[in-house]
């Protein structure tokens, strides 16, 4: 197993390089980068500096200059355009910027944000507590609800419990998490009915003044509605996956043999079926965790005014903040690959008969 883990860790390097390369090429082809946005703003200021002028103002010294390739640079001094390119690092050839990015990322040097005047790693660390809170609690509650419920539905397949619980699951799955979040705000956050929970933020303004117990209570008070909204959209798929996985195992021959030997239903379920049925559920855990952790929480963060990684990545794409885009992409991809390795290790812990090393030979 140690050799397999070592090989998987080595494979992370070319995988990261490949993903960064593809995204780097896509970004280069996409219009409207940070240089273009800055030039457009300067051109707008230039046009408004003198009413009725076509591009005058103090920053314009060459109104007919066509030396720049940027559409927004019309009427701007070429030296000013060159300064802006150097400011954002676009004064170098594409291949040079690419290899410089790879070299910096090997040492986790992601550079500074174009707009917030902070390093990318500082921004990620600053936003991480919110995403960790949403991701971990949502994942924990989702599995605590879905796995027992899915097992119960498999045991009671076709019963009235299975029918009405499936109805609830379908309704929960059909409602988007952001719509359910708005409904929770209307009902419980001072919208139209009750004012039981706060509307925004992860903690209160006087959080530092509270006692330890008060801080814990305040934290859970703020996180309840966002986590509940996230769980509603996540537990339906996992519940049905658990049910179908257990149903598939329950109908196999080894289960009939175990029953024929006199084992109780509980002994058959948790002694034989559970280990095999949980393999499929464990396989989807990394993808579910990463989805909830980073991408699935973006709308929840916006609605509840939670400043996390999902919101950070969204704003970086809108503003063409390339250091933040590539830095968060690098971190997300690395965590995803490591979680996939953890999933394989968990496979072996659940079922020692699985041998990944022999499969590669």
From TrEMBL:
UniProt entry tagged with the keyword Ubl conjugation: no
GO terms, biological process: microcin transport; transmembrane transport
Residues making up the signal peptide according to the UniProt record: none
InterPro entries the record matches: MetI-like, MetI-like_sf
Subcellular location: Cell inner membrane; Cell membrane
Pfam family for this entry, one: BPD_transp_1
GO cellular component: a single term: plasma membrane
Keywords from the named record: Cell inner membrane, Cell membrane, Membrane, Transmembrane, Transmembrane helix, Transport
Limits of the ABC transmembrane type-1 domain: 128-343
Primary location recorded for the protein, binned into one broad class: membrane
Bilayer disposition of the protein: Multi-pass membrane protein
TM stretches of this protein: 9-30, 132-151, 163-189, 219-242, 279-304, 324-343
Function statement: Probably part of a binding-protein-dependent transport system. Probably responsible for the translocation of the substrate across the membrane.
Family note: Belongs to the binding-protein-dependent transport system permease family.
Protein name, entry field: Inner membrane ABC transporter permease protein YejB
Organism for this UniProt entry: Neptunomonas antarctica
């Amino acid at each position: 197993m140690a050799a397999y883990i070592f090989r998987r860790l080595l494979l992370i390097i070319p995988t990261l390089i490949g993903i960064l390369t593809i995204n780097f090429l896509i970004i280069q082809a996409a219009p409207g980068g940070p240089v273009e946005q800055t030039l457009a703003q300067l051109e707008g200021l230039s046009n408004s500096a003198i009413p009725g002028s076509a591009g005058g103002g103090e920053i314009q010294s060459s109104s007919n200059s066509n030396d720049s390739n940027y559409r927004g640079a019309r009427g701007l001094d070429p030296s000013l355009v060159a300064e802006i390119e150097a400011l954002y690092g676009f004064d170098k050839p594409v291949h040079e910027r690419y290899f410089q990015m790879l070299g910096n990322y090997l040492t986790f040097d992601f550079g500074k944000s174009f707009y917030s005047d902070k390093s990318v790693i500082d921004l990620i660390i600053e936003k991480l507590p919110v995403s960790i809170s949403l991701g971990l609690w949502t994942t924990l509650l989702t599995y605590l609800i879905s796995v027992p419920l899915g097992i119960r539905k498999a045991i009671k397949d076709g019963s009235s419990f299975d029918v009405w619980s499936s109805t609830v699951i379908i309704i929960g799955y059909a409602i988007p998490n952001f719509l359910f979040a708005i409904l929770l705000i209307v009902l419980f956050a001072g919208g139209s009915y009750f004012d039981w929970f706060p509307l925004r933020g992860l903690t209160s303004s006087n959080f530092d003044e509270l006692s330890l117990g008060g801080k814990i209570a305040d934290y859970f008070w703020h996180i309840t509605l966002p986590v509940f909204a996230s769980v509603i959209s996540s537990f339906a798929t996992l519940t049905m996956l658990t049910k179908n996985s257990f149903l598939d195992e329950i109908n196999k021959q080894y289960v009939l043999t175990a029953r024929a030997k006199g084992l109780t239903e509980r002994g058959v379920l948790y002694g034989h079926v559970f280990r095999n049925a949980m393999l499929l559920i464990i396989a989807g855990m990394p993808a579910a965790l990463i989805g909830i952790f980073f991408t699935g929480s973006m709308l929840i963060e916006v609605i509840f005014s939670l400043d996390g990684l999902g919101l950070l990545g969204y704003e970086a794409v809108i503003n063409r903040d390339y250091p933040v885009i590539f830095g968060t992409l690098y971190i997300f991809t690395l965590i995803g690959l490591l979680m996939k390795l953890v999933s394989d290790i968990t496979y072996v812990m659940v079922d020692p008969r699985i041998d990944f090393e022999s499969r590669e030979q």
